[in-house]
């Protein structure tokens, strides 16, 4: 007798997949709000579940506490990130005028700092006591430094960088300049407007990195 193997078909329901996606978004959004209001150590899965209107099991289905924080931080960064595969960042790197490049980069990073600011503060506070968040913070700082190096390489190609500033020093200056904490201190704590911060942000970069009157 010839045996016939039956091929199992995986059933996919677009309706269920969409519902799962929406639930995930609700949970991640709720997690971000709880982390901002309660801090990392004070936030609990129960609080996140209550804010999202779902069960604890549903929250755990999205991720554990550290995963939820990483997801919330990634969600806050939507609309732009300082990574080589971000279309907006690549567009900035393609600008051939050094002054305009830094102005666009200042606006780009100011917007990211605005979105990430509250969660970034939680991350910095919690990294000292939580190994997973310490790793997340370290990775974020490495991304910022690589970002700074990429922008400097693009600006250097225009021949407009200050000759007396070593390249690695210039990278460190730019890395420090784009720290989200700068936005938090000047806008949230000192009351600057977003526009005022953005203008200062660009002027500080240009003054520190470009030759006087420097443009590509």
Question: How would you explain this protein's 3D organization?
Answer:
The chain is mostly helical and 216 residues long. 72% of the residues lie in helices and 0% in strands. Helix 1 (14-42) crosses helix 4, helix 6 (98-126) packs antiparallel against helix 7 (131-156) and helix 6 crosses helix 9 (180-189).
Number of helices: 10
Give the overall shape, derived from the CA principal axes: elongated
Written as H for each helix and E for each strand, in order along the chain, the element string is: HHHHHHHHHH
Overall residue-averaged pLDDT value: 88
Which radius of gyration do the C-alpha atoms yield? 22 Å
Low-pLDDT parts are: 80-85
Distance between the termini: 79 Å
Give the strand tally: 0
Q: Tell me the fraction of residues in β-strands, as a range.
A: under 5%
Give the biggest beta sheet. Answer: none
Helix/strand structural class? mainly alpha
- Which bin fits the share of residues in helices? over 70%
Label this structure with key terms.
elongated, 10 helices, 216 residues, mainly alpha
How do you describe this structure in short?
With 216 residues, the protein is mostly helical.
Q: What's the layout of helices and strands?
A:
Layout lengths: L13 H29 L2 H8 L3 H7 L2 H12 L10 H7 L4 H29 L4 H26 L10 H11 L2 H10 L4 H16 L7
Helix pairs in contact: 1-2, 1-4, 1-6, 2-3, 4-6, 5-6, 6-7, 6-9, 6-10, 7-8, 8-10
